[in-house]
Amino acid sequence: MTIKLLLALLILAITGTGLYHAFKPLPPGxxxxxxxxxxxxxRLLIDQTLHHGDYGNGGPRLDHEIFDEALAMxxxxxxxxxxxxxxxxxxxxxxxxxxxxxxxxxxxxALIRQRENFPELQxxxxxxxxxTLYGGLLSENFQRLxxxxxxxxxxxxxxxxxxxxxxxxxxxxCCQWLGNSAESGWLPNPIGNQPVTLRSYLxxxxxxxxxxxxxxxxGDTGFRALVSSANPHDGSSRHSNIGLSFAGPAVADxxxxxxxxxxxxxxxxxxxxxxxxxxxxxxxAEEARIRVLxxxxxxxxxxxxxxxxxxxxxxxIAMFYLSHRDIVLALVKAHRRGVAVRVLLDANQDAFxxxxxxxPNRQTAMELTNNGVSVRWCNTHxxxxxxxxxxxxxxxxxxxxxxxxxxxxxxxxxxxNLETDVLVLAYRGxxxxxxxxxxxxxxxxxxxxxxxxxxxxYRAWADHSRLRYWQYRFMEATGLSTx
Length: 483
Hints:
CATH class of the largest domain: Alpha Beta
Largest sheet: 9 strands, mixed
Structural class: alpha+beta
CATH superfamily of the largest domain: Endonuclease Chain A
Shape: globular
């Protein structure tokens, strides 16, 4: 009886712990809904790898607008820099001799150089613990930043809700107290070469992250911000991505959302507080407007964009992961009521040198196609179609654009990961909307050097397996997945 009682108590403790941390109150400042502000000095930025046509060197051409802009922003900073980036490391599936752009080193070098040139510059770097495999390895980039007097904050993920409670309930009881070591690794490293501990793998299985990609700088001309889907990660340097940089009072909302991360990670907030006091609320009147959104506020905005679209309006999606049930069903309903819906997806075949099985996008694509929605695949060659874009263009000339870090999945949209997007409200002829539309049209049909094929028809990666479809549904519902 004693063993049975102990076993029952253990099961009860695991279940109770899992349920509590799956539904516990969110830290203050999460699911942030910013005010709607004038959109000041916007630049829509696009990264893409072009494999087709003659680009002079016999290989693909990498167009990098996002990190060229990010590095320029850092070089112009004089008083303040905040970086919040998910993947910030130099690992690459193609090895040290690859042609991947060393984005992590470039960003680290730029931050250190700017701090050396302007000693009063306040620099805060926020990132995800995956870059040290949850304490199981050392980060050369972070060591260099800290040696230069730059604060590096690894997000305290335990404060967030658990996206994989079937495992996290066990982990919180048995393993989170064990700490970790960067010197005693003995297992293969899933993201690099240095061996890691079993404790790193046990933490990894929580499938939870600070997935944001945000940069804020203050220079002689004031504040500027960048929100994108791009990571300063060498292995991601060939991915296609999209981002928006802008100025004006909306930057303050970004800083408020980042202050919340610092606060629940038990990190100082004084640098952000000082910066917030220097951002004016007033801005020139502009017809185009912008709103900062995080976590489930992104989901709510996406659903509003889709569900309120009317016959004759157009919805275009370019997405790395699309699996959120409410979003998928809303797209089907929009198509049925006469909205023109086009969905451009990554085939989920490549992940930093490893082959994937296509879940969840091929299963979502089957469902959408069976219901009449037009789906095409990015024509990738080892890289990922990593953009996260929802573009709505109405028959009355108005337009809305949602972009940033968030994939349209349960983990990204239901207050589990940390995410940041911006919602742009404008007219169809606005420069940012027009560029986004051109990007989508080129990806949907062909690209520079026509007839270069930038996307493939649905049949190219179609997967009609009902077994894998229900595998996707189970993984999405339970959290037993990385999407």
